[in-house]
Design goal:
31% of the residues lie in helices and 20% in strands. It is α+β, with helices and mostly antiparallel strands and 211 residues long. A hairpin with a 6-residue loop joins strand 7 and strand 8 (184-187). Helix 1 runs parallel beside helix 2 (60-71) and helix 5 crosses helix 6. The longest helix is centred in the C-terminal third of the chain and has 13 residues, at 159-171. The chain is globular, with a radius of gyration of 17 Å.
Length: 211
Amino acid sequence: DLHDVLSIDTSSTGITLDGPFANGITDSEDNLIAKALRLCGVNAAVHVTKNIPSGGGLGGGSADAAAILRWAEFDDLVAASRIGADVPFCMIGGRARVSGIGEIISPLVHRDENVTLITPPFGVSTPAVYRAWDDLDAPRQRGSGPNDLETPAIVVEPRLAEWRERIGNATGVTPILAGSGATWWVRGHFPDLHEKLPEATVVLAKTIATL
């Protein structure tokens, strides 16, 4: 149920947005949708109903760009990776291991799994997290958890550490950061988290993407 909705009109141009997470998204040339349109050589107006939290590390922008490329029947994964490392995976979908700079997709066996996503009331800038990754020399100092971006993400947004503790206390499970943040996720269904963490956006999702 967690998905953006795109409407495409080839008789016009421009990008418009609405939905609960449209704030902070622009129609600038840096928008991944605009980059996808340029990559496939198409002029079109795109309206996005933004249901995936922005700056949440959930790949919403990449999925939107992938939707444009799939609609345009563009299948060059190497070129797609240049506008966003997550875009090729979103073009293919399913469950996979991704390598290279995002362009090498190795499908894995389908596996359903319930996870709970918890997005704090703030986002995290992906470029800022990767700059912090470089500053910390993170490739040589890999984190102890499953997501090596957790440490630089907390450097960029220290409130993430507070939310990691709050989610852990509320669920009894150590949460895992999604992408570059700010969303945390835990395996399983925790229906009372809305009450325990009223400021957060809590979504139960059935996923096939976890390793």
